[in-house]
Amino acid sequence: MKQEQAAIVNVSSGLGFVPLAMMPVYCATKAALHSFSWSLRHQLRKTSIKVFEVIPPTVDTELDRGAREKRKQEYRGIPPIDVAEATLAGLAMDEFEITIGQSQGLRTRTPQEAEELFQRMNGNW
After folding, report:
1. What is the CATH number of the domain that holds 60?
2. Are the C-beta atoms of residues 67 and 25 closer than 8 Å to each other?
3. Structural domain harbouring 19
4. pLDDT tens figures, 104-114
């Protein structure tokens, strides 16, 4: 609060908007982090602290590689450098919700579009 400029950067996920049924806790925590970021941004609006939320799609890291292989999921995600570059660009533009790649547009879907996407993503699971 004493800094002339300060920022909080939270990393959530597109799965916080349209979840995978096989990962309910992960998706729910990302949805909660989105809500928290939004509320915190509002609470701090009259201060020098900016609250950013980075919303990437699946990123090709070690974090989920084993689970993806177990699920026989072919899509490996976007390279981490793409997330870093998009994040830095969003921060520079004061874009408080930085949606990246496939995560773009998930928040603005109608309930029917979200349901259709949920069904496609989750299939017969």
Report:
1. 3.40.50.720
2. no
3. 6-118
4. 878 777 889 88
Catalytic residue flag (residue 75): no
What is the model's pTM?
A: 0.86
Radius of gyration of the chain (CA): 16
Q: What is the tally of structural domains in the chain?
A: 1
Q: What are the angstrom distances between the C-alpha of 30 and each of 12, 34, 73, 113?
A: 5, 6, 21, 20
Residue 76 lies in a domain: yes
Q: Where does the pLDDT of residue 125 fall: very low under 50, low under 70, confident under 90, or very high at 90 and above?
A: low
Which candidate in 9, 20, 26, 84 is catalytic? 26
| pLDDT for the residue numbered 121 | 85
